Amino acid sequence: MPEFDFTRLRRAPDVEAPNLQAWDATDELLVREALASGIPGDEIAVIGDAYGAITLALADAGMRGIRVHQDLVTGRRALARNAATLGITDGTDAARRAAPGHAGDKADDLENPAFAQHELDESLLSGTRLVLLQLPKSLAELDEIADAIARWAEPDAMLIAGGRVKHMALGQNDVLARHFENVQPQRAERKSRLIMARILRRPDAPPPFPVSTRHSFAGETPTSARDPRAEQGSRAELGVSAGSRAEVGRSADGLTLCAYGGAFAGDRIDIGTRVLLGVLPDIRSSEVVIDLGCGTGALAAAYALAHPASRVIATDRSAAAVRSARATMAANGITNVEVTIDDAGSELPDNTADLVLLNPPFHLGNAVDEAAGHRLIEAAARLTNPGGEVWTVFNSHLDHRRVLQREVGPTEQVERTSKFTVTKSTKR
């Protein structure tokens, strides 16, 4: 059997750049171990396969029925496109479903005998004996994944997790040891390392996610009754008040933020978002508002609470973020926010909104790259009506103001802290 040609894989529709590729050595090591295991494809689950390298290499080797979970819709679309390029599907269905105009949360589910997309739930893991995992950045996300495997996979299931050595930490072993009795890191190869985990520790408690925290904008000192395993950073500087999952409800001076493990910043309000929340009273009331890259929904929720007559569309490319944002809206009794999974608002028509709220990322996975932020700025320009406004918060050292001026229109600084800048751009 000829060796799989990883060089044919592409990241599109995600950002393409000379320093970014669609696979790494970890993918190749995971594929090697899966093929050596002798376990059939319909008993294998693949999690965190960024652009389809693991899944498609196994399918190319003849495996069928592989179950796949990719958090990012860009990854799902890349897998569809790469499958079509390689002829692993007939190409027609994959290309249609990967097209930017294809609507619906399930736009990237493939009816493909080689593989099928699943959410991180029982349908992904029931009956599986081998799980292949590209290790996530967040320990909370790893905790949620490991809990799901221990909860739903077959009793004799084995997890093979891997990552680039420079991004791995001993804390990952500790998280896995809570869910498996036997955790064995392997020797590094080609700057990647695999971890073998066996003998599931079946949980006897409900799933640990989502977690939630009650945030007060008045600045009380936080106290938390949450599971410390889900902590993703200090909340003391954010002035929040933490509490139990039952502490929900809408309030003019705060909100309950919910988060699944894979959501950026967890149930914290990240510092950039908090800076933009600080100028929320200065932002005009608008009929249709888009929170582009909504994360756990803090901006959309706060705006919706302040402007109950507005229609707010909160969109993100992460399934974990979308599930979190929906939980946030439910926890606060908010009914005027629609949360959708999408890639930079690609499924929304031009000139949709009078107002766009934007807190763009500047990381692509583990790589620092401004292109992801620029792509969202371009999307904001497309989605905003002429005369409408784009309010953006970003790290002050980034070149976003120039890009906003070029893509959207006249841009003025509204707020600046030691780390962040808030601007208002008017669509020309």
Defining key terms:
428 residues, alpha/beta, Rossmann fold, 2 domains, seven-stranded mixed beta sheet, 12 helices, 18 strands
Question: Can you give a write-up of this model?
Answer:
The chain has a 7-stranded mixed beta sheet with strand order 3-2-1-4-5-7-6, sandwiched between helices. The chain has a 7-stranded mixed beta sheet with strand order 12-11-10-13-16-18-17, sandwiched between helices. Helix 6 (139-152) runs parallel beside helix 7 (170-177) and helix 11 (371-383) packs parallel to helix 12 (400-407). The longest helix has 14 residues, at 73-86. With 428 residues, it is α/β, with parallel strands linked by helices. The protein folds into 2 domains: 6-200, Rossmann fold (3-Layer(aba) Sandwich); 268-426, Vaccinia Virus protein VP39 (Rossmann fold). The chain is built from 12 helices and 18 strands. It has helices at 25-37, 53-60, 73-86, 92-98, 122-125, 139-152, 170-177, 271-278, 298-306, 319-331, 371-383, 400-407; strands spanning 44-47, 66-69, 115-117, 130-134, 158-164, 180-185, 192-200, 211-216, 254-259, 288-292, 311-316, 337-341, 353-358, 363-364, 367-368, 384-395, 411-416, 420-426. Helices cover 28% and strands 24% of the residues. It starts with 24 loop residues before the first helix and ends with a strand.
Number of helices: 12
The parts where pLDDT drops under 50 for at least 5 residues are: 90-110, 219-251
Biggest sheet, spatial arrangement of strands: 3-2-1-4-5-7-6
State the end-to-end distance. 57 Å
CATH superfamily membership of the largest domain, which one? Vaccinia Virus protein VP39
Secondary-structure element order, as H and E? HEHEHHEHEHEHEEEEHEHEHEEEEHEHEE
Alpha-beta classification: alpha/beta
Radius of gyration: 22 Å
Q: How many domains, in number, for the residues?
A: 2
Shape: globular
Mean pLDDT figure: 88
Helix-residue proportion: 25-40%
Report the sheet with the most strands, covering strand number, pairing sense and barrel closure.
7 strands, mixed
What's the CATH first level of the largest domain? Alpha Beta
